[in-house]
Design a protein that fits this description.
This protein folds into two domains: 321 residues, 4-Layer Sandwich (Purple Acid Phosphatase, chain A, domain 2), CATH 3.60.21.10; 208 residues, 5'-nucleotidase,  domain 2, CATH 3.90.780.10. The chain has 14 helices and 32 strands. The chain has 610 residues and is α/β, with parallel strands linked by helices. It comes from Streptomyces alboniger. This is Bifunctional metallophosphatase/5'-nucleotidase.
Length: 610
């Protein structure tokens, strides 16, 4: 893969500046038209009449996942803590509103840079996913995004596809999706912004597959950005997508490139890292530094932040889809801002970095940051509406096709509980598909991260309430995994269930969604693998036999041991079925109608002890 990003074209802000300059006859006329201090900070004793410090606005977001249209249901809401201690749900997100929010925030800020912390693409709704996320990249270009780290989902379609996303070109199989004014295929231009992948190297060359860092420069101010994804990316993506790549330790990588930037004279450094934490509250505006600095957050990012060199002045994070603005001390004990803006474009973070022209570094004690809601009550950005309408016209024939009917909301991604009603429905659908291949199929397991949204009863368009469209089903399961059948012993199943809360998943449990007939107790008062009560595991009312062999349905990702479930990767006698979306749609078609819609499952297969 090329390490050179797509040549950066002038953003809309740069275009406006050029247009303004062009309207004047000469540079001399321009100088005469402006006051002496224009284009500079106000005099304050600095060299050349400039103040010693200048405030740089850093706008950031993460985990957009191709959500061009406002996310549906609970996936499109943020929780806001009120002054009286109560919580309020606010509808948020959608690129039309995100564009308006960012453009409004930039006003009166001559020093403004916009950055993202990965997963801008991948696991996307149909409007973007159907076109290999080209619509989202176009939207990010229009947003004037300056730089982003890669996330694990940037590797969903492999390293070669990521190179195309960066550098442009039509898809190798599906070709060009759009046509120019003459009706000829229109080449996809790629991302204006550089994707940074400092800790992802080619196994053969040992070099980063994309640029490891990038330096933003404006009127003598320089801020370096280092981009990394989580070291554990191989555990949560398809093995085929990362073949030939190595993922390295986040701390060591960032420290290495921070040293390189420092030697180049770049003293102000921000790390964009696709790894995150678990905040103590789901409210985006809670105090993460109460009672002390960083006390309101736990998870992988806390140890990473404490290990990254003090040369780095701020961390923009992601991956956990959480919202937080925390001050976590660096290895020297100095306060350092660590932020995350939830997901799907529902929030953006506005951070003020005070840049000292003399030291070329950030004055840490002056750093301020806050998350802001991307409200749907503000005006839509017309250019984003136009972009959505253009791609929606291409997707409509497929997206609007009805595939099933539901009698109420079926929470999935936004359920907020270990066992989601939509998770049960998907597991049942996969078991049904498995039984059509092998009547001896016993049960199905579904990874929670593979459920990307909710099914909402209210109509999203003209289809009518309770109608599930192909586009809505695609949004729920966009990965095109196959439904696989494997043989596992009862003992292996017990081990796999314990891996939900032990091993790689002990710090952040991943509770598998189970098909009807499989029941057990999860005792959250215990720790690690002991949380799974072995004696409680039953299949169709009978205790699981450790020595018996069971025929298990699971998607190809889990069948490969993904998501920290290596035991599931040891299955034998594999049989590959259709893709999971087809299995889901077939189940909806066979088990629902306008007169008899599917009711939301009770989600009572796993007994939770708190």
């Amino acid at each position: 893969m090329s390490t050179t990003p797509h040549p950066r074209r002038p953003g809309r802000r740069a275009t406006r500046v050029l247009a303004a300059a062009a309207s004047l006859a000469t540079l001399g006329a321009l100088a005469a038209a402006l006051p002496a201090s224009a284009g500079q900070d106000q005099a304050g004793g600095g060299k050349g009449g400039k103040k010693r410090t200048v405030d740089v606005q850093l706008l950031s977001f993460n985990d957009f996942h191709g959500n061009l249209q406002p996310p549906a249901g609970s996936s499109g809401q943020v929780t806001e803590k009120q002054h009286d201690g109560t919580e309020k749900k606010i509808d948020a997100g959608g690129v039309e509103y995100l564009a308006t929010s960012l453009r409004t925030a930039r006003k009166a800020h001559p020093y403004s840079v916009t950055a993202a912390a990965g997963d801008l693409i991948g696991a996307s709704p149909l409007l973007s996913g159907l076109f290999h996320d080209e619509p989202t990249v176009q939207a990010m270009n229009k947003l004037d995004l300056d730089v982003s780290s890669v996330g694990n989902h940037e590797f969903d379609e492999g390293a070669k596809e990521l190179a195309r996303i960066q550098n442009g070109g039509c898809h190798p199989k599906d070709g060009c999706f759009e046509k120019d004014g003459k009706g000829k295929p229109k080449k996809f231009e790629g991302a204006d912004y550089p994707y940074l992948a400092a800790n992802v190297t080619d196994e053969k060359t040992g070099k980063p597959i994309l640029k490891p860092y990038w330096v933003w420069k404006h009127k003598g101010v320089k801020v370096g950005f280092i981009g990394v994804t989580l070291e554990g990316t191989p555990d949560i993506v398809s093995a085929e997508g990362i073949k030939g790549l190595k993922f390295h330790d986040e701390i060591k990588t960032v420290n290495k490139y921070a040293e390189i930037l420092d030697k180049q004279g770049v003293k102000s450094i921000v790390t964009l890292i696709h790894e995150g934490g678990a905040p103590a509250s789901q409210s985006y505006n809670y105090d993460c530094d109460s009672p002390g600095a960083g006390d309101g957050i736990s998870g992988p990012i806390t140890d990473i932040a404490k290990g990254i060199t003090p040369k780095v002045d701020a961390l923009v994070t992601g991956h956990t889809h959480a919202a937080y603005v925390c001050t976590i001390p660096d290895p020297a004990g100095k306060p350092r801002m660590v932020t995350s803006a939830s997901s799907y474009g529902k929030l953006y973070t506005d951070t003020t970095l005070t840049y000292d022209r003399r030291t070329k570094d950030i004055v840490r004690t002056s750093v301020k940051s806050a998350n802001h809601v991307v409200s749907r009550e503000q005006a839509k950005a017309p250019d984003m509406t136009s972009l959505i309408n253009r791609w929606d016209k291409l997707a409509a024939p497929i997206a609007n096709k009805p595939v099933g009917y539901i009698s109420g909301d079926i929470p999935g991604r936004g359920a907020g509980v270990p066992e989601a009603p939509l998770g049960d429905l998907i597991a049942d659908a996969q078991l049904a598909h498995a039984k059509s291949l092998d009547p001896e199929a016993d049960l199905a397991l579904m990874n929670p991260g593979g459920i990307r949204s909710d099914l909402v009863h209210k109509a999203s368009g003209s289809e009518g309430d309770g109608v599930v469209t192909y586009g809505e089903a695609f949004t729920v399961q966009p990965f095109s995994n196959t439904v696989n059948l494997v043989d596992l012993t009862g003992a292996q199943l017990v081990t796999a269930l314990k891996q939900q809360v032990g091993g790689a998943n002990q710090a952040s449990p991943k509770i598998l969604q189970v098909s009807e007939g499989l029941t057990y107790t999860l005792d959250m008062t215990k720790s690690g693998a002991d949380r799974v009560v072995t004696d409680s595991i039953k299949l169709n009312g009978k205790a699981l036999d450790p020595a018996a062999t069971y025929r298990v349905a699971l998607n190809s990702f889990l069948a490969g041991g993904g998501d920290g479930f290596p035991e599931l990767g040891k299955g034998t006698k594999p049989l590959v079925g259709a893709d999971d979306l087809k299995a889901f749609n077939d189940y909806l078609a066979a088990n629902s109608s306008a007169d008899k819609p599917i009711a939301p499952p009770k989600a009572d297969r796993i007994t939770i002890v708190k």
